[in-house]
Design goal:
alpha+beta; Jelly Rolls; 6-stranded mixed beta sheet; 5-stranded mixed beta sheet; 4 helices; 13% helix; binds calcium ion
Amino acid sequence: MKILTVCIVAFAFVSSIDGNVASTRNCGGRMFVDEAIIIDATTQQDCTWQFQTKEDRILAFTVVGGNVNDAQQFFSIHDGVDIDSPVLLAEKQKIASPRKDFPQAVYTTQPSAIVRFKTAPISNLQLKVQKAVNCPADLGANTGCGRIVDEISCYCVDYNLRTHEGQTTSCLDNGFKLLALESRTEENLLIGAWGNVKRYWTSLTDNLNEGNWLWGSTGTGIVGGYFNWAINQPDGSGNCVHLNDASPQGGWNDDNCANLREAICEGQP
Ligand SMILES: [Ca+2]
Ligand SMILES: [Ca+2]
Ligand SMILES: [Ca+2]
């Protein structure tokens, strides 16, 4: 009860909020992680922070400009709402398909965590706390998942053949959405991970209005945004779009939604 009181008092002293990124130099407090929060390790000892995010999301901890493994001597991250919750260690985290250029991260298994700074670091130490999607190793047979694009999102490839509707439902059943592409980088990273041969269904369709292409998963159109049509596509051959057209250049192809194809599901925090 005493800790809770201290937390509530400290919560009122958040020094700056820049969009959804809050930075603070307080010793301890209780914070809701809407997107990302950066905590400056203070020179005081025994600062305890309680973090909470959306109930179907988890928390990811990284060290700004550093390595969370090396910094762990200064703090402990507990997986849960109280200080007795198990301590999470960077070296024990099993991360599906980690990329070398991602900052090393520690993930909770639930939407809350306690961080206790044990000793004061000698130099400036900033702990970044982000809302993240849980990323399982796979979604079952003939599937695989990974943090392909960044350390807080998750993508899953599904090699089981289904109609466009079947893949849309399958992604949703697993807490994900059928792919929506926002950039060349996103598409290139996915093809780099899972190849340029399979014709993965995406959530892009012109089901509602012929020729008006919308990403079903985000509700946004491709006008003014990213697109990557294959040569001579779209040609009106269907209302659903898959990646990796059979032409040598690849790209997107509109296709019959009833065709059985692979898919990529996407989870964003
Ligand atoms: Ca996306
Ligand atoms: Ca069409
Ligand atoms: Ca076509």
